[in-house]
Amino acid sequence: MINRDKLKAQMAKEIEMFEKNHPKSGEIFKRAQGSLLQGVPMNWMTKWAGSYPVFVERAKGAHFWDVDGNKYLDLCLGDTGSMIGHAVEPAVKAITEYVQKGTTLMLPTEDAVWVGEELNRRFGMKYWQFSTSATDANRFALRLCREVTQRPKVLVYNWCYHGTVDETVAVLDEKTGKTVAKEGSLGPQCDPGITTKVIEWNDVEALENALKDKDVAAVLAEPVMTNCGIVHPIPGYHDKLRELCTKYGTLLIIDETHTICAGVGGYTKEHNLKPDMVVVGKTIAAGIPAGAYGFTEELGKKVAAAIPPELCDIGGIGGTLAANALSMHAMKAVLSEVLTQDYYNKNIPLAVKFNQGIQSVIDKHNLPWNTTQLGCRTEYWFRKEPAMNGGEAEAAVDFELDQYMHLASLNRGILMTPFHNMALISAETSEADIDHHTAVFDEIVSNIL
User: Fold this and answer.
1) pTM of the model
2) Are residues 320 and 191 in the same domain?
């Protein structure tokens, strides 16, 4: 139903509008070419729609301001890193006060004990360890599972995302069904088929076939796929996942980095899942780099027994900044004062309203699109029915249309997550913000029909 000629013409207008309204960002970007590779501090920042990235000056709550003075409703929120909102007062107070006491010591603080106890209460994992990111937490979890099981392989889902963990940057080859490096994977250490098995989400038969050789140390899974778009499990899938992992002696790691949007204990607590390990990160320290990974009591004891004290510092797990004092204090502030049940009670209904607004525009124009929601996370897709797995989600990607929707939204003061059409609703988002997005969404869709 999209008029591609109109889309191209409107995109040209949006580019012109962007450059007119962001001259200072353009100047800074030009200057950055002399010192930053591709003019950005991280290469994926080149994927933002527009002639160059918007340079941010400050952020507060659900909004931020760029160097040109433009104000935005932030629905990206650091792709979950700022899910609680920007510069939330309890976190700001805790961080600014504590930074005067020292930030990193390579020694534990009492805050770490409190955080471990709280994560235990939320996710049901007995023992916890910490890292500087969820990527590292996933990497460490996989190493420990391979060590404990003495098995070489891991299993992940097609078009999943678990950070930059080498074993997970892999997909299913559409023609052969074999595990291959994901297109765009930079310098893979080896053929990922040596380390990894990839299957489609929601395929129970494929799951059992992958596990029955008993060479898989761990399944690493988001409880709901998110980075390729929100893909929910079919009824009973998690029960079968747990059953088959137990049957074949495979450990189950649930990555709640994004799905903590579902509730205080993520999807794990909301749906009473029974993993062997849980990984969390991003928003739990208000944007201070941090991650955590928890074990059941049984697995934790096996892991501890596998790590000789004399070799514990050279096993490929750790980092001198992991569990630093500042990040632990920030986690305590967020978990005790911000990421509470009240937080979810407020923002999930706002996400429902946001999703209903998008769906009303889809219905109004009779578009072959759909919307999905998980807690305070929502997504719209360029396909009639929700995807059942990562392969279907990837097939629905329309890069040209994505770029237009993101840039047109940005030009009207709304930032979406750059890699897909995802929006996060924080407790700092207002109903007026949501109504504004619905109106903008209607306008920019109407311009290309």
Assistant:
1) 0.97
2) yes
